[in-house]
TrEMBL record:
Residues 42-100 form the Partial AB-hydrolase lipase domain. This is Lipase. Keywords: Glycoprotein, Hydrolase, Lipid degradation, Lipid metabolism, Signal. One of its GO terms (biological process) is lipid catabolic process. The lineage of its organism: Eukaryota, Viridiplantae, Streptophyta, Embryophyta, Tracheophyta. The active site is at S176 (nucleophile), D344 (charge relay system), H373 (charge relay system). GO terms for molecular function: hydrolase activity. Residues 1-22 form the signal peptide. PANTHER family: LYSOSOMAL ACID LIPASE-RELATED. The keyword Glycoprotein applies. Belongs to the AB hydrolase superfamily. Lipase family.
Length: 403
């Protein structure tokens, strides 16, 4: 660690105060999310008038993922659907993220009403998934993964499942971490051959130019490494200890009345009137290892597999440094669309330019100067500014099936 002794001691002391005893820690562990009384279809999508069905599929490493299939509010599940579209959410989110606004503002609803066969992805650890074939959420091994596994196991399996059910190559739409997963997965020939095109909101492969104040502060504190050293493997900010950690981070150096800005950058058009509703669903759990992997990207400026350290890398990968995801391996024949914003503190324009230089193809680009990271998902103007452009892109490919 590049952490001074004083910084390390202070950080450990603060975090240890959150875990006052083994009994307290066990109480916090008991707060791990339970399976919701109702699934995503019943709880959020069907009440808005859209037919929806729940699906399960198992990854090669034993996680049972939940997917939802949504069709038009004017149709039913037995009607012939249009082209399949898989929606991939961002960090600390899940499939509900695509349905949190009104039916004429949420991308999931808009796609369904335009005749697309909408599939909603949820990665391991989120509340709409169904655990593991042998591991409990109380097991450390249950949380032993990062976005690398999201890409190479979860997204691979979700794409395979939708491809098999629909007998059709699918469109992929990702936001934030969903774009990290997608671009990493698309470097794998057996995955990308099942994909017809992709639209990426706030695309990320490199993170070494981020300007998000809170994220940079946590990186400087080596927060990710400290929580792993303390034996914390699940990050659930809806638990008591998770809430206390966030309170600890909020001091005079970070304006926590504007926490979103400190994480994502200034959002021009975020629908703040619905924030209480958003918080009924977000945030979802993730793993400390996943946060560590993201912070490795910031520190090292790489788009690579998880760095275990030289000797463990040699054992796992056969080399001292983790292998990089080679963006030049994404076929030039894969149509790509990317939307990015001038106020995005996470998907920085300089980092995006780095990504574009490594791709073989030239994606269609949409630049919105006043948009921040969340605007692409939850803006009051996202339909007109963003989603209509995505629909135009997909329709231009000439491969869109309709009713």
């Amino acid at each position: 660690m590049e952490l001074s002794v004083a910084q390390a001691a202070l950080t450990v002391a603060l975090l240890s105060s959150l875990l006052l005893s083994a009994e307290d820690f066990n109480d916090a562990s008991s707060l791990r999310r339970k399976s919701p009384v109702a699934g995503l279809c019943t709880q959020l999508i069907e009440p808005s008038g859209f037919p929806c069905s729940e699906h399960k599929t198992q990854t090669k490493d034993g996680f049972i993922l939940g997917l939802q299939r949504v069709s038009s509010s004017s149709g039913n599940l037995r009607k012939q659907r249009g082209s399949p579209v898989l929606l991939i959410h961002g960090l600390f989110m899940a499939g509900d993220a695509w349905f949190l606004d009104t039916t004429n503002q949420s991308l999931g609803f808009i796609l369904a009403d335009r005749g697309f066969d909408v599939w909603v992805g949820n990665v391991r650890g989120t509340r709409w998934c169904h655990g593991h074939v042998s591991l409990s959420e109380k097991d450390r091994e249950f949380w032993d993964w990062s976005w690398q596994e999201y890409a190479l196991y979860d997204l691979r399996e979700m794409i395979r499942y939708v491809y098999t059910v629909t007998n059709s190559r699918l469109f992929v739409i990702g936001h934030s971490q969903g774009t990290i997963m997608s671009l990493a997965a698309f470097t794998q020939p057996d995955i990308v051959e099942m994909v017809g095109a992709a639209a990426l909101l706030c695309p990320i492969t490199y993170l070494n130019h981020i300007t998000a104040r809170l994220a940079l502060r946590l990186v400087k504190m080596h927060f990710d490494q400290v929580i792993l050293a303390l034996g914390i493997h699940e990050l659930n900010f809806k638990s008591d200890w998770g809430t206390r950690i966030m309170d600890m981070m909020c001091d005079r150096r970070v304006d926590c009345d504007d926490m979103l800005t400190s994480i994502t950058g200034k959002n021009c058009c975020f629908n703040s009137s619905r924030i209480d509703f958003y918080l009924e669903y977000e945030p979802h759990p993730s793993s400390a290892k996943n946060l560590n992997h993201l912070f490795q990207m910031i520190r090292e400026g790489t788009f690579a597999m998880y760095d275990y350290g030289r000797w463990k890398n040699m054992k796992r990968y056969g080399q001292l440094k983790p292998p990089k995801f080679d963006l030049s391996q994404i076929p030039s024949s894969l149509p790509l669309w990317m939307g990015y914003g001038g106020n995005d503190a996470l998907a920085d324009i300089t980092d995006l330019q780095h990504t574009l230089k490594e791709l073989q193809s030239k994606p269609d680009l949409l630049y919105l100067e006043n948009y921040g990271h969340l605007d692409f998902l939850l803006s009051t103007r996202s339909k007109e500014d963003v989603y209509d452009r995505i629909l135009t892109f997909f329709n231009s490919l000439g491969t869109v099936r309709s009713y």
